[in-house]
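Supplementary Text 2. Reproducibility record for the structural model of the 323-residue chain.

All settings were left at their defaults, and a single model was retained for analysis rather than an ensemble. We include the record here because the model underlies the residue-level annotations in Supplementary Table 4.
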Amino acid sequence: MAEAIYKNVSKERKLTAVAAVAAGEIWQLPDGRAAVQQCATGVSAGDPATFYTKGMWTVAKTATMVILDGMPVFWDVSASKCHYKKVNDKDFFLGTAVGDAASAATTMDVNINVQPVWDIDFNRDGLLSVPTGTQAVGAFGYPKTFGGARSLALTATNEAQCVDMLTVDRFDKGANAIARFIFRLGTNGSTSDVDINFGIANGTSTSDADAITEHVLLHIDGGTLTILAQSKDGTTTNAAATTGVSATAAAAVADRVELWIDTRNPADVGLYVNSARVISGTAFRIDGATGPFGLLAHVEKISGTATAGPIYVDAMQAHYAEQ
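Retained model, structure tokens:
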């Protein structure tokens, strides 16, 4: 026989339905891809069904959450709506958001099975890390690798300690970048001597993230779980203020905190915690900055025997756009 015989166009997958499938219903195929059943009348169990695996589709969306343009979208199987994340059940990757979806929106457009194009990804690209403090095997030192995550920790040694991760690749303040951070606060700082920061910055500090000259940071004072936000661009400084959202000191999937920093308006950077915009009445600015900005995770204590971590960093990523 020929080495290849044409079966159908690559956007289609034909299956025998194991259960009734309604028109427009979203399934996960045996190969893991998302697919839409497009027969206008639906399909009964045992009948052949054609599923489409490509294209832009308008899909049902979970209300009360924002999903930004170009960000990953997941299908919440139990709710039959898309979501900004998945949890430990049958949820699966659906595609990439097309346009911004507002919190109140009940539908949104998704390019199904299209992965986001990350211009910076800390698990793929280079990182810089400069620990401050007494390093020891199995104790304080460089970030540790746990699968696709890194962990940061401080030990009880009575000294100043700092450990960070700063991406080698950076972006200009006009790049229309959206940055994404996902972390699990396995063990919070034992006292307020510990500071934990995630965000964008033009550099790092060996002792104090507040001293970085240009930054937008989401910040946790050890000993509390409240997430704060702050910024500095050389002209305007916004001191740390509460977002009204708290992290959980645990390391399961349900304890993940997802942070987004939307720089498409450099004079009013949008900050999001778990898909909800926070402190929208404050203008966090980078328009006065020189840059460029990298993605930063930073854990520090000025002195004392306070501890922190492991703090698991599951993602630090950013993508850019012309507009």
